[in-house]
Design a protein that fits this description.
single chain; 197 residues; alpha+beta; eight-stranded mixed sheet; 20% strand
Length: 197
Amino acid sequence: MLWPKAVQERVKTGTDRELVHSYPYRSACPSTVWTELVESARTELFLAGYTNYFFWTQVPHFADTIRRRAEAGCRVRFLVGDPDGEVTRQREAIEDVALSVSTRIRITLEYVDRLGSLDGIEVRVSTPLDATNHVSLSVFRFDDEALVTPHLARLVGHDSPLLHLRRHGTGGMFDRFAEHGEELWERAAPRIPATRT
């Protein structure tokens, strides 16, 4: 037999090949994985977490890295929740933590504003109708790899599970989650950067 049963049970086939790794907690994913994915993105860096706050604290030199990525022609997109939205207020009551959801979103927006006007960096805010779908599932895309966090009930993002996916064809898990992010992006409102005085 070319493929004994024991080998078949251990070799990923079909869409299962797209699952690189799973983590019971987002915080269990090593920061080196996030850093390598951000630094290696060449065409697409799409950060569709509700706050995206942790990038600024977890990825070393994150602002410089995304600036370099954008200058090299990589499309960099941030999709965040509305800091003043109803879903944000509801989520803050659920999480009940000192660093509130709206504060984490505002920190991300402030850091993006500090980058200045760079071609290739876009920011949008999810619509009120999409906010519940956005807050419950974060999709972070780096070319043909993605880190996905389905948020569990009352847990903050770092306590929810995480899937590391790598695209291996059409219609797999990677595409399903990427399409979710794109759908939210298409309906989201472009954000006009704050002006500095």
